[in-house]
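User: Design a sequence. Structure:
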């Protein structure tokens, strides 16, 4: 089974939410809210690629998806429903703008116009800043083809536009998802 223009995926570990944390031998539910986007599962396993797709992603690869892909919501009558991506039996249709990274052969790669920036710790300054991370600066962790053509490569220290930080945790690392146009300069 394949779709003409959508990837067919299932949530990693067959769960829509990632709200259980282990502390020692005890499992804790850290959020029981289905509305809290921070605890929706953001990892999907590709079951089928679109019929017309010719890119590098294939069945079995992992995708980092938008937080609304697997979430439940409640309609006007209070009835729990699946979002528009739901197909059936833990299978979901996602379009190319609903995922940002893909993992192939244990290597994450940015998809399309997206890139990921690792925030840098606050640097010493004469001006006291009440933040843990340097504002508007980071290290390019996962670049894309557009940035490579512009000479911006992974590992470069960069500056980015205000309000462009969309936070993700990828393999335990805090990263900001951005668009190519959010990168303003290489330092």
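Assistant: Done.
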């Amino acid at each position: 089974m394949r779709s003409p223009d959508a990837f067919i995926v299932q949530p990693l570990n067959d769960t829509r939410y990632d709200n259980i944390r282990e502390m020692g031998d005890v499992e804790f539910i850290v959020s029981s809210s289905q509305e809290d986007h921070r605890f929706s599962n953001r990892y999907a396993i590709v079951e089928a690629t679109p019929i017309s797709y010719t890119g590098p992603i294939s069945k079995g690869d992992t995708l980092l998806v938008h937080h609304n892909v697997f979430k439940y919501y409640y309609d006007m009558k209070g009835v729990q429903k699946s979002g528009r991506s739901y197909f059936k039996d833990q299978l979901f249709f996602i379009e190319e703008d609903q995922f940002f990274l893909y993992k192939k052969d244990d290597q994450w790669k940015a998809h399309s116009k997206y890139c990921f920036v690792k925030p840098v710790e606050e640097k010493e300054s004469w001006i006291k800043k009440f933040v843990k991370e340097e504002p508007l600066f980071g290290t390019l962790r996962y670049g894309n083809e557009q940035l490579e053509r512009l000479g911006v490569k992974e590992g470069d220290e960069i500056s980015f536009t205000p309000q462009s930080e969309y936070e993700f945790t990828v393999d335990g690392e805090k990263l900001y998802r951005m668009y190519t146009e959010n990168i303003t300069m290489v330092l």
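The chain has one helix and 17 strands. The CA atoms of residues 10 and 90 lie 6 Å apart.
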